[in-house]
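Researcher: Please translate sequence to C-alpha cells.
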Amino acid sequence: MSKLVSWIAVILLLCVVPFGSWLYLSKGLNYRKAALSELQVKDSLSISEDSLRILNNKTTVLVLNKEVKIMDILGKINDQFKNSPSFQIMFKDSVGTYSYLPKGYLDERFLSYQGKDFILIDNKLQIRNSYNSDVPAIKKMVEHIAIILPRVKEADIIIKK
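Model: Translation complete:
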C-alpha cells in the first residue's frame, strides 16, 4: 500500500504539477498578449507638438471630461500609482488641484476623441487607447496603465571581494 502511495506521489510530481504550472503560465501569457494587442499605438504626438514638454517621458492619463464621478475615480487611480515617478494625471481644462494643459494646447489633436473621457499616452508620446468612465472601461484602463508604465530599474547585486 505504501508503495502505491509513493508511485502516485512520483507521478503527481513528474506529470501533474508541471502540467498545472504550464497551464497557469500560458493563461498569463495569453492575457498579456491580448492586453498588448489592445494597446497598439492609435496615434502619436511629435516632440514639436509637445513644445512645453508636459507629456514627454511621462505615462499620462489625459482627462477630457471633468464630471464629479470622474474625480472620485481619479483619486483612486492616483493612490494606486502615486509611487511611480513617471506617471501623471493631466486635465485638458483647469480643475482643482490637478495639473492641466494650457488653454488651446494640443486641442486639434484631441478632437477625434470627443465622447471619450480619458486618453492614455505613454512616455514616448504615443496615444495607446481612449476610455469612457464606465466601470469595465476604468478597470481596463488601470490594467493598461500597469502594463505600459515603465518599470523602475532594479539595482544589481554586487559581490564585494
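Researcher: Any highlights?
Model: The first helix runs from residue 2 to 38.
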